[in-house]
Amino acid sequence: MLVNFLKSLIISEILYPSLAPTVTTESVVNITVNSATFNGAVIQNTEEIEARGFEYKKTTEAWEDAINISASGINNITATPTTLEQGIDYNVRAYARTLSGKTYGTVLNFGTLGLNGVNEQDISIMMYPNPATSQTKLVVSGVNGETKIILSDVQGRTLNTISAKPVSGTLEQTIDLNDLAKGIYYIRIQNSDISRTQKLIVK
Length: 203
Hints:
mainly beta; Immunoglobulin-like; five-stranded antiparallel sheet; four-stranded antiparallel sheet
């Protein structure tokens, strides 16, 4: 009996291997002085998912100190923390938890607004071409004051920071991509009033 059980177990593992879910941290939107909305995606494989959510922390903190927030949704997940601190840079990553542990999405960076924050619904962002090869052009409308354009990889590492000033409420900046390998990157547009992150694909 034991031999047959072990044989069945081995065959089951071969035919139905344990595969963790695929998790993506997609965007951070509706950023205010003390809140933001996290969006992500979870694709279930063979492992049963017990919980979906996000972990977030200040950029100066370790992931061991991150705050966990449960997400709503199944394939497309979202969560909105409302106790963020104003004017602080944060990291966030989506997760799905199974019996074998947590599977994480990539890390996104964002910053909460200062007290003089503007309504982010008035901000328009275009980036073209995207996907891009050698360069992409970023156009941000409805922004004022010196603005940082921060390029980071999927691990959250900052690769380049550009400081630019908008003219008549519009910021235009060409970003050189020649030194980047093919893959997914993130462009963060940030000043004292806004913090928005856009996905960039280099092909």
